[in-house]
């Protein structure tokens, strides 16, 4: 296993974990851009652009892009979030050159008008699909309520109105403000010929013109409150709660991740015993959402409408108790065992290594190997856990509830 | 990549089947107990699922909490579920813990304590699983479709209903366990960094005292083919279509699998191209092979806004019917690369392999090695697939739609009374 990196003259970063023993290779372009980099007029453009990237270039039609990805037997996809857009493909190592050329080419999309209008319909279908799926816009709502006017409160999908109003021109100007090679990293993992990779990327991407896209990473002014969304034809009630959490570069994020596992893992955690083992909820969990400059810890419960008010009270009480009485050494030890095991399992997937490398670059971290990350989690102490609890009080939160209940109130 | 599959069937009928994956540091198991929801008596629908919940609420020396803690201290990422034929228990972990994890499950399977004080909590968990299905509109449409297509037993969901689960008593649960949890027909599949000889001795020791039992009788129920609409005020109309396929064990399986791969295997597949890429009608559209032991189906799904649902349905049906005219050389070429690539990628996950091996053993009584699957894929030709498609054209569609309005079928020569 060898970690390699290189920076092209125009600023494009190339990072790879080369493992000659691997049977596959995974590659991805990681772009530091997402919903937080949009204005309200172009809300949803990052995600729409992600779709348009697969719609062809001066060298290829949309259909050709799809054909070639399939011809390599690639497993490819893309995703857009609040602060990142990722394009990735896993292939057998013999396709390295071909897939790198294709990915590089599609990163300079044509945005042809016919493709643009057809794909706009797909995006609208995607928005409508999520409208039918739990928690029915609850995630977007809790993000916007919690982050307030901070750009992290902006929706990734946008709305039917904002997406309908987008044009190839407005998308192109967004592209030209965000897709600078210096704002992009190419990450790879698996069986990789790194020298060849650098040579190929230099050939395909070396002429991309660099510029300096900005981003404000000022810490959000987190808001607290309680919001009820009425959704009469939902069967279950959904509770989403956000409290302040560590940003993606704060040291305390490791202890916070362990804390989230202790409180909110899907098995054996405090929430598990309170809500899942007892059958008081269909699902319950807690996890960290870390971003540049800001972060959140989200708790989630799905339960019957009849049980919702009591569960809100139980959740509040559980959070107060944890703050008062803390976490036990036994809980910490069990969580560490679990995390260590997850790290080993994830490290065996080439794709997940590629994501880890790219994600580390996105958050401006220095690169850490699997062993280094495992060692950090192993070293987390009870004191650090309690420091995380004090720094990020869970009971100071924004709660959004969605479902048939009309009279839910914030727990006292 | 050399692939070795080992297996051993013990005297009491348990089969251990394993694939060493020495390049990994992890290991996984997948246990299939022949106690699926096909055995649920009608008034007790959901009981296999309830028993699956209850055997994990205290076993051997462990109470409910100690059981979870035992798994956590071993770092086991575990799961369980009831399915039609089997109740499944799975786990993945660092390789050194595999034997200890199996020791815990030896208690789950042979020595559950069924504590009275866990019964109502367990029942509530089962209620939650029933509730979970209600807000998942795509699953609701597909579930109803499976019930119509396969009939009320083979096409059932394992959760049962609130009423049936409410009526189940602790003694019902004990009876179901006593009758159905048995070593004969039970499969323990393992994959990852493991030594088969040691594993075989260990599993033998853990389960040697378990006596085989007679296989219970399975009932059958007729299908209710046709078209059904479920009215629901939703943003999208959910369209689910089924037609006859072949089971995994059938000699034509890979012919059908190949055809469906062309229809829905990648970004250049027919459904994705025609429904989404060219017309922008939906975000999700797919067709897949679904298999039971002795029969199979092709299941298709798409979710699309109500005003475009009719067009979406029309295009899907047209594409399905067009399959009878055959596939092309380049389509098959892409499919072959995809299938092979997918098989190599599966080798990165011991969890995936353990699940596949258990499934192979259940359906075939042996495991298809990578080489064998590779050969079957290599043997596929445009002629052989087209011959299959001409003899078995997609037809006799069962359809379930869920949304505010029913759709029209006459244009396709399908009437609501087709059944």
Overview of the structural elements:
The complex is a heterodimer of chains A (412) and B (419). Helices cover 43% and strands 20% of the residues of chain A. Chain A is of the alpha+beta class and 412 residues long. In chain A, strands 1-2-8-3-7-6 form a six-stranded mixed beta sheet, with helices on both faces. A five-stranded mixed beta sheet of chain A has the order 9-13-10-12-11, with helices on both faces. Chain A is globular and about 60 Å long. Chain B has 419 residues and is of the alpha+beta class. Chain B folds into two domains: 202 residues, Metalloenzyme, LuxS/M16 peptidase-like (Cytochrome Bc1 Complex, Chain A, domain 1), CATH 3.30.830; 186 residues, Cytochrome Bc1 Complex, Chain A, domain 1 (2-Layer Sandwich), CATH 3.30.830.10. In chain B, strands 1-2-8-3-7-6 form a six-stranded mixed beta sheet, sandwiched between helices. In chain B, strands 9-13-10-12-11 form a five-stranded mixed beta sheet, with helices on both faces.
Give the gist of this structure.
The complex is a heterodimer of chains A (412) and B (419). Chain A has 412 residues and is of the alpha+beta class.
CATH superfamily annotation of the largest domain in chain B: Metalloenzyme, LuxS/M16 peptidase-like
Category by helix and strand content of chain A: alpha+beta
Q: If helices are DSSP runs of H or I spanning 4 or more residues, what is the number of helices of chain B?
A: 15
- Considering DSSP H and I runs of 4 or more, what fraction of the residues of chain B is helical? 40-55%
So, CATH architecture of the largest domain in chain A?
2-Layer Sandwich
Keywords:
heterodimer, A: 412 residues, alpha+beta, Cytochrome Bc1 Complex, Chain A, domain 1, 2 domains, six-stranded mixed beta sheet, 15 helices, 13 strands, globular, B: 419 residues, 43% helix
Topology, please?
The complex is a heterodimer of chains A (412) and B (419).
Chain A: E1 2-7, E2 13-18, E3 25-31, H1 45-52, E4 56-57, E5 60-61, H2 62-71, E6 75-80, E7 85-91, H3 96-106, H4 113-131, H5 138-147, H6 160-164, H7 168-178, E8 184-190, H8 194-205, E9 225-230, E10 237-244, H9 253-264, H10 270-276, E11 283-290, E12 295-303, H11 305-325, H12 329-347, H13 350-362, H14 370-378, H15 382-391, E13 397-403
Parallel strand pairs in A: 2-8, 9-13
Antiparallel strand pairs in A: 1-2, 3-7, 3-8, 4-5, 6-7, 10-12, 10-13, 11-12
Helix pairs in contact in A: 3-8, 9-12, 9-15, 10-11, 12-14
Chain B: E1 6-9, E2 15-20, E3 26-33, H1 47-54, E4 58-59, E5 62-63, H2 64-73, E6 77-82, E7 87-94, H3 98-110, H4 119-134, H5 137-150, H6 162-167, H7 170-180, E8 187-192, H8 196-207, E9 227-231, E10 236-245, H9 253-264, H10 270-277, E11 284-291, E12 296-305, H11 306-322, H12 329-346, H13 350-364, H14 370-379, H15 382-391, E13 398-403
Parallel strand pairs in B: 2-8, 9-13
Antiparallel strand pairs in B: 1-2, 3-7, 3-8, 4-5, 6-7, 10-12, 10-13, 11-12
Helix pairs in contact in B: 1-4, 1-7, 3-8, 9-12, 9-15, 10-11, 12-14
């Amino acid at each position: 296993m060898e970690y390699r990196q290189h920076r092209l003259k125009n600023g494009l970063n190339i990072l790879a974990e080369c493992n000659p023993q691997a049977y596959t290779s995974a590659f991805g372009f990681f772009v530091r851009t997402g919903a937080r980099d949009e204005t309200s007029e172009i809300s949803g453009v990052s995600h729409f652009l992600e779709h348009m990237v697969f719609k062809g270039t001066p060298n290829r039609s949309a259909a050709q892009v799809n054909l070639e990805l399939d011809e390599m037997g690639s497993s490819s996809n893309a995703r857009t979030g609040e602060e990142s857009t990722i394009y990735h493909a896993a292939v057998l190592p013999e396709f390295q050159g071909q897939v790198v050329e294709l990915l590089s080419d599609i990163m300079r999309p044509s945005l042809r008008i016919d493709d643009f209008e057809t794909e706009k319909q797909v995006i609208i279908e995607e928005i409508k699909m999520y409208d039918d799926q739990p928690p029915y816009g609850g995630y977007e709502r809790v993000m916007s309520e919690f982050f307030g006017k901070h750009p992290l409160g902006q929706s990734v999908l946008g709305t039917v109105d904002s997406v309908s109003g987008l044009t190839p021109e407005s998308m192109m100007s967004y592209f030209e403000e965000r897709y600078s090679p210096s704002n992009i990293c190419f990450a790879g993992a698996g069986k990789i010929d790194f020298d060849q990779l650098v040579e190929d990327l230099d050939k395909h991407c070396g002429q991309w013109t660099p510029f300096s896209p900005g981003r404000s990473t000022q810490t959000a002014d987190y808001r607290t409150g309680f919001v009820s969304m009425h959704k009469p034809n939902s069967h279950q009630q959904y509770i989403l709660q956000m409290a302040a959490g560590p940003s993606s570069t704060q040291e305390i994020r490791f202890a916070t991740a362990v804390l989230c596992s202790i409180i909110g893992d899907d098995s054996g955690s405090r929430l598990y015993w309170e809500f899942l083992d007892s059958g008081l909820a269909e699902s319950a969990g807690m996890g960290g959402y870390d971003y540049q400059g800001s972060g959140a810890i989200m708790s989630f419960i799905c339960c019957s409408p009849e049980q919702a008010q009591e569960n809100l009270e139980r959740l509040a009480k559980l959070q107060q108790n944890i703050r008062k009485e803390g976490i036990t050494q036994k809980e910490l030890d069990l969580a560490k065992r679990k995390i260590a095991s997850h790290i080993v399992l994830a490290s065996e997937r080439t794709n997940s290594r590629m994501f880890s490398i790219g994600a580390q670059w996105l958050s401006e971290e220095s690169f850490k190997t699997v062993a280094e990350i495992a060692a950090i989690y192993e070293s987390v102490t009870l004191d650090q856990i309690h420091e995380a609890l004090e720094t990020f009080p869970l009971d100071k939160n924004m709660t959004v509830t969605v479902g048939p209940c009309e009279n839910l109130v914030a727990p006292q | 990549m050399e692939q070795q599959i080992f297996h051993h069937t013990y005297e009491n009928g348990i089969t251990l089947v394993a694939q060493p994956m020495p390049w990994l540091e992890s290991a996984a198991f997948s246990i299939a107990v022949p106690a699926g929801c096909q055995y649920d008596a009608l008034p007790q629908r959901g009981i296999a699922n309830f028993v699956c919940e209850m055997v994990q609420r205290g076993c051997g020396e462990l109470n409910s909490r100690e059981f979870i803690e035992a798994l956590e201290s071993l770092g086991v990422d575990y799961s369980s579920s009831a399915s039609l034929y089997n109740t499944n228990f799975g786990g993945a972990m660092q390789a050194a813990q595999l034997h200890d994890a199996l020791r815990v499950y030896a208690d789950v399977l042979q020595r559950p304590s069924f504590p009275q004080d866990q019964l109502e909590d367990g029942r509530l968990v089962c209620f939650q699983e029933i509730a979970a299905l209600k807000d998942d509109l795509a699953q609701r449409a597909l579930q109803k479709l499976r019930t119509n297509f396969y009939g009320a037993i083979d096409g059932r969901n394992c959760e049962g209903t609130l009423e049936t689960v409410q009526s189940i008593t602790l003694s019902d649960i004990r009876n179901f366990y006593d009758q159905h949890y048995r070593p004969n027909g039970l499969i323990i599949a393992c994959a990852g960094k493991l030594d088969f000889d040691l594993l075989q001795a260990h599993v033998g020791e853990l389960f040697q005292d378990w006596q085989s039992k007679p296989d219970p009788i399975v009932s059958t129920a007729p299908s209710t083919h046709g078209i059904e609409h479920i009215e629901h005020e939703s943003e999208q109309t959910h369209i689910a279509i089924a037609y006859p396929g072949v089971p995994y064990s059938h000699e034509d399986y890979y012919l059908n699998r190949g055809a469906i791969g062309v229809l829905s295997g990648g970004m250049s597949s027919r459904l994705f191209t025609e429904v989404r890429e060219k017309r922008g009608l939906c975000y999700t559209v797919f067709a897949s092979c679904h298999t039971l032991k002795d029969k199979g189906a092709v299941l298709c799904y798409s979710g699309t806004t109500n005003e475009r649902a009719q067009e979406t349905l029309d295009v899907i049906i047209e594409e399905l019917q067009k399959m009878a005219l055959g596939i092309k050389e380049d389509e098959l070429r892409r499919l072959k690369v995809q299938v092979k690539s997918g098989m190599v990628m599966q080798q990165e996950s011991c969890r995936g392999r353990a699940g596949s091996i258990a499934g192979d053993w259940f359906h075939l009584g042996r495991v298809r090695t990578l080489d064998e699957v590779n050969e079957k894929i290599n043997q596929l030709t445009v002629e052989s697939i087209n011959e299959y498609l001409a003899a078995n054209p997609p037809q006799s569609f069962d359809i379930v739609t869920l949304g505010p309005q029913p759709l029209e079928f006459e244009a396709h020569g399908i009437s609501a009374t087709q059944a």
